[in-house]
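Marked as duplicate of an earlier ticket. Keeping the data here for the record.
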Amino acid sequence: MLGKVLKHKNALRARRKARVRGSIFGIKEKPRLSIFRSNRYFYAQAIDDNKATTLASIDGKKMGLKANKEDAKKIASAFAEILKAKGIQEVIFDRNGYLYHGVVASFADSLRENGITL
């Protein structure tokens, strides 16, 4: 029973991801900011889809931070500094199929507070 539930949840997330990703495209001046949230850690990267390259990334696991709201704010502020150092002020937010609440919303709000336009 548990396996069926997990397969269904993953299938729904994959459908949301494909639907969201179909209308989002990042360029060098305004890259796509893609996130990944596991149960333990939080990751983010800025991607130039024209060249299919990662311009900047951050890893919550390497920083020793977990996937909760408070740590997502710390990760976002550090990532904002990385983006500003690379000359990126504006990004397109790709929530990667995750619902916009909790950790994801906290990360996005903290990016806005640190001067990155979503």
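See parent ticket for discussion. The first helix runs from residue 2 to 21.
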